[in-house]
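The authors assume throughout that readers already know how a fold can be written as discrete tokens. A single example would do more here than another paragraph of explanation. An entry of this sort, consisting of the sequence and the corresponding backbone structure tokens, reads as follows:
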Amino acid sequence: MPTDTRTTNQNYPKPYPSNLLAEDVLRLRDALDDIDTDMAARPTNATVQGLVDSAVNALISGAPTALDTLNELSAALGDDAAFSTTVTAALGARLQLAGGTMTGDLTLANDPTSALHAATKQFVEAQAAASAGASIGLAIALG
């Protein structure tokens, strides 16, 4: 009696090795029917495309209009392929809150308008000179 062999993955019937033509034709017909049924159950290209479109739309649904494409996101990041490295390096170069040494020129306001503004050396000297002149003038007037 012939051995019933079947395919590994889909369990389709294989022809008998004994080459009994009529039985092989029936088994091949059954196998083709099984393949046809399997193929009909698979998603179509349109179905797959719909699933992909839904997934992409869900991904970007919360993005503002100006940032809803990869090109717009890339432009917003300066088209920098190494953006995270660039930002990390820039943050590392900042003066730490705990202190540090600043190098290079620092531009300060010529006329600070707030107690929290830094003043230039020239501004402080001018204020001191004006204050000293006012003190001398006051001393002469009182004298």
Remarks:
- The radius of gyration is 42 Å.
- The chain is about 55% helix and 0% strand.
